[in-house]
Amino acid sequence: MKKFVYIALCFASNAFWAQEKLTLEKCYELVEKNYPLAKQNNLLQSQAELQTKILEKDKLPKIALNAQATYQSEVTQVPFSIPNATIEPLSKDQYRATLDVNQLIYSGGAIKAQTQLKSSQIKAQQQVVEVNLYQLKSQINQYFFGLLLGQEKQELLLAKRTLLLEKSKEIQAAVKFGAVLPASEQVIEAEIIKINQQLNEVKYDQLKLWQHLEALSGTTFNTNAKLAIPKHFTSEANAIRPELELFALQNQQIEASQKVIATTNAPKLNAFLQGGYGNPALNMLNNSFETFYMTGIRLNWTLFDWNKTKKEKEVLEISKQLIASEKETFEVNQKRQLQEINFEIGKIEDQLKSDAEIIQLREKIVRSADAQMKNGVITSSEYLNEVTQLFESKITEQTHRIQLFLAKANHQIIKGI
């Protein structure tokens, strides 16, 4: 039963990919969802929630159990005697066990600043993941349009083979009646075999590209699936590359670090309670085991740290300058890449205009060659040469067309989508 269900699911999957055209946007979506790196976003979010909970724990009372046993060479003694009274000296071996409770009352904004810093760090790390996933889109473009070009080549080769098979039947009839020599038929048959070789080569190139796309998307595709030719390429005027968002988040992280440093030397106020049992207890003159307790508040305030915080702030300012430099470098490279891709798009568009003119002329030549071959003016080899040049022109046109799609898709990636 399980085997039957598995086979049914396989057939259903194949039927889906055979009927549904695979789009470039769907490939982007699958990679963003299934690529192993994408899992880090959820992990980072879980990490952020845990770190926030950890910092919140600092607001709760801290309870500690302490115990010690010591032996000392000297003990405190009374340097005089009291009439009619005996003062027993302290034991050199002393014992103490305490339970200490500390409650933070005021942290000088340290906990809030540290929480904001952790949050900004996680956001920056998540954006790094987004940047890495975004950079995969260029690879997806290469594989997707490589597959699309292969499908277009395959269709043209099949059309050429169909045409030659029809001509082969015509020539067979002519050979039968002695109108042409048998060699004419053999020339066509040899070309059909060559086309089959080319189709086989395209097939294996396609399989390799499908495997690359499957590895990125974590999805098994039917290799017979048709790819949808993108109709529109738009790049929003206000589009922002994820790298620019990363630079902004890195600056926010530095600002959060500055706030943490600012709270380092702020006053900290704690309430404490200590209860214990020991010998001696709080009365150092009583040489016996007693219980005791002590409560109060404690203020900690670093008044001078030898300019440590000042230097730390200077380090962060340098980090800001480094980020600004990285951003400027990125924007310069982005502008250069856009200029190059725009030049490439213009060049291919001009080539396509010439391709259309060439194909029109080649189609006229083939029609003329077909009539000439039927009338015995030219040989089948000469006719075949014209047919081959026509289909090579069509393949060249399709190659340029796919290259134009690829260039426009890359333009979107460079600009930001």
TrEMBL record:
The UniProt keywords, alphabetically, are:
Cell outer membrane, Membrane, Transmembrane, Transmembrane beta strand
Q: Where in the cell is it found?
A: Cell outer membrane
Q: Give the superkingdom in one word.
A: Bacteria
Q: What is this protein called?
A: TolC family protein
